[in-house]
Amino acid sequence: MNATMALMGNPNSGKTTLFNNLTGARQHVGNYPGITVEKREGRLRLEELDITVVDLPGTYSLTAYTQDELVARNFLIEKNPDAVVTVLDATNLERSLYLVLQILELGTPVIVALNMMDEVRRKGVTIDTKRLSTLLGVPILEMVARTGEGRETLFREARKAMLERPAHTELRISYGHDLDQTLDAMQALIESSNFLGGRYPSRWLGLKYLESDAEVLALGQSTPDVHARLLEMTSVLARHCRETLNTEPECLIADYRYGFIAGLLKDGVMTRPATQARFDITDKLDAVLTNRLAGPLFMFAIIYLMFEMTFTLGEVPMGWVESFFGWLNETATAILPEGLLSSLIVSGIIDGVGGVLGFTPLIMIMFFFLSFLEDSGYMARMAYMLDRVFRIFGLHGCSVMPFIISGGIPGGCAVPGVMAARTLRSPKEKIATVLTAPFLSCGAKVPVFLLLAAAFFPGSGASALFWITLGGWVMALLAARLLRSTVIKGEATPFVMELPPYRMPTLKGMCLHTWERVWQYIKKAGTVILAISILLWAAMTFPGPSEEQTARFADERLAAQAMSWDSDQALEEALAEIDNAEAQEALRTSLAGMVGTALEPMSKPAGFDWRTNIALLGGFAAKEVIVSSLGTAYSLGEVDPEESTGLSEKLRTDPAWNMWVAVSLIAFVLLYAPCFVTVAVIGREIGWKWAAFSVAFNTVLAYGVSVSIYQVGMAL
Amino acid sequence: MQHPITLRSMHANQSGTIDSVSATGELGRRIRDMGLVPGTQVTIMGRAPLKDPVALRLRDFTLTLRNNEADLIMVNVNESGENRQ
Which one of A395, A513, B18, B73 is most buried, counting C-beta atoms within 10 A? Predict the structure, then answer.
């Protein structure tokens, strides 16, 4: 028999720990259609029952303000799950019950799981679970999700609920004389007119009108006459509340709910020890970790350490992935006959997908640390300490992690950086963070900067890199400010944030979380990214040089071989020179080359010729490609980005180049369209419309900055 | 009885009872959902290094608010000042 069980609860209630505990690795993460809220499902077998467990997003309430809350609420109403388990942090009972009351008012039968009972007992607090259960009329069980305590009781209760399907009975809370009277009248009207087809509990609909719930009001418009009468009743009551009590119905509803909870917990249902420990472990840690002086120092040390460890530890497995693809590349080259197919498989598919999968170890390690910071409760403290600074630019305290990882310290990467923005719960701030994080100097841009610095600012590579990094920060923050006052305009999302108690995350939870992210990334590499690699390969290959040109290079080779040479080495060099010239010609006559040449009139004001244009087009695949494409365009053959002294010498002596071209190009590379892997990730995180916007916006901004630099520089 | 003061003007370790919350819309809803309703005991835990946001303890948990959000909450400070709930 199939059944559905939904898990609900506040953020940090241990809901996901329970979910992991119940379903293990048999879980699947997707998105609810059209929105970015994660849909987490897993499977659980319980004797004859085959259960789909749904981990609904963590919420504090069931209003219509956030997507998370709407998803949870609509799931309860529309999917009508066979059992609903609400997971409560029992150390924080009052606020957790606020959510339970709202679910009960909706009429959904629930099983209440009081999680973290070990902490409750340690604090000397007692909860009379039996009496609370009788008062609320729902089964309540004690559990410790981390250790599995209470699992069996939960299974028993869930099984009972699924087999017996208890009737929906709505909890009736009294909201005081005035509100109750209006609610009764609304209920009578809703029931007599069969408003909204009886799909929603009538008293609940009335409450939602009093709370001016945007979604319910929109639904109600389908029956204009009843809708208008309900609105009229609401406004009469609102006026009355304002006149007599100087408050709004919404506020009264919250007051009465908390009053109801206070009533539930009195008379020994919950007792606290007479002498409560003045400081618990969280307070002791916070005295240091959020201290005015020590707090920021610790924070910077932790950020730096995490960054160093991610990129140091990541280097080794990244090397393995790279050598694997290197080996694959060589094998394919050896097996396949030379020609277009070999070129497509080697340069298009293997190099393209390999370059992308090379990031996997970084993403894995980064998310492992990130889940530790998040699950332990430290991330909330970082947001708390940095919010004042980031708010100036229209961002949120939580924006710091995506910025650092994207290259706030040179060597980062915007791919995991953009993904790290998931920790932001405020939609506008999240979009602004995701769009500006790619301005920071990621590890792939660094070789370009070092090449240009070596050519035009010899001996000052380190200080050049420092100023470029600083420039990245300034541009990212200013761009965020610009975006937040134009396209993502609007009031800052309220900060109101919980500082959860510090808790040691479970290894299982961190591993599952990490694996989820890595798997999503790998799936992306296999689809969108594969397609784009092939497109880019085609653009840099077709239509290619004409037959005459190919014939001319073949003749040159024959001529060279026919000549007498001092040594074999000299002949090799001469032939290599011809190969390089042919590669240059092939690139120039490719689609990318033609676009590069066609763009020359536009790029001239910034100081770039067709060669630079091609390199920049290639840089859309991955910024490292800029160095190697410049090498091909200057007919130096394949240039290793790590070893580019020959190219920097060439650029220094080339008449088309000078210091201002270099500065202009540095600015352009720092700011222009993110590489396509980043664009794909942006699309996934905040939608394809924004991904397209980031390509256009960043390129236009980069162009503006580069033209200004070059024009001002040349005029000086 | 003394006059209520804004939550922003309270200093660390000071306790009091919420008198009124004048926030509306989404902010008001979030504040109320977190249990900041009249009659609730709050204690200021401290402030972030740049003096904003402010951290407060209520109903067994810690909440942070920006100062401009704290401006909308009026509190009757406990006479003894340092009392915890």
Answer: A395
Nearest to B59 by CA among B28, B33, B23, B22: B33
Burial (CB < 10 A; 0-12, 13-18, 19+), residue A642, is exposed
Chain-chain contact of B35 with A94 (C-beta, under 8 angstroms): yes
DSSP H/E element including A144 = none
Identify the CA nearest to A25 among candidates A383, A516, A364, A435.
A516
Gap between the Cα atoms of A386 and A402, Å rounded: 13
Whether B32 and A248 lie within 8 Å, measured CB to CB: no
Among A95, A255, A290, whose Cβ lies nearest the Cβ of B34? Answer: A95
Structure tokens at A399: 């924006």
Q: Please check the confidence at residue B82 and state whether its pLDDT lies above 60.
A: no
Pair of tokens at residue A362: 């970084």
Element (H, E) at A111: strand A110-115
pLDDT reported for residue A639: 65
Alpha helix positions (H), A246-395: 249-265, 281-289, 294-335, 340-343, 351-357, 360-376, 378-392
8 Å CB contact of A384 and B53: yes
pLDDT score of B1 more than 60: no
- The ipTM value here is 0.92
Q: How far apart are CA A214 and CA A596, in angstroms?
A: 51
Contact, A557 vs A396, CB < 8 A?
no
Q: Which of A167, A160, A141, A162 is nearest to A50 (CA)?
A: A162
What amino acid occupies position A563?
Answer: M
Interface touch A254/B32, C-beta < 8 Å: yes
Return d(Cα A225, Cα A229) in angstroms, integer: 6
DSSP E strands: which ranges in A598-695? none
- Strand, helix or coil at A151? helix
**Residue of B36, B43, B66 to mutate, testing the A interface (most A Cβ within 10 Å of its Cβ):** B66
Q: To the nearest whole angstrom, how far is the Cα of B26 from the nearest Cα of chain A? A: 7
Distance CA B65, CA A397 (A): 12
Option in B34, B40, B49 nearest A496 (CB): B34
Q: What is the structure's pLDDT at B84?
A: 46
Q: Do B60 and A94 touch (CB under 8 A)?
A: yes
d(C-alpha A484, C-alpha A394), whole Å: 6
Task: Give the C-alpha separation, A377 to A60, whole Å.
Answer: 17
* A242: chain B residues, CB-CB within 8 Å: none
The pair of three-digit structure tokens given for residue A594, joined into one six-digit string: 């033609």
Cα–Cα distance, A286 to A308 (Å, whole number): 25
Over chain A (716 residues), what is each successive 10-residue block's mean pLDDT?
Answer: 91 89 78 67 88 91 82 89 93 93 91 93 90 92 92 92 84 91 94 88 93 91 92 94 89 93 88 71 89 90 81 83 87 85 80 74 81 86 90 90 82 82 82 95 84 85 84 95 92 85 88 81 71 79 80 84 80 82 82 90 92 88 80 70 75 88 95 91 90 96 96 92
CA A409 to chain CA centroid, Å, is: 19
Nearest partner of A520 among A16, A21, A36, judged by Cα: A36
Q: Is A29 helix (H, G, I), strand (E, B) or coil?
A: strand
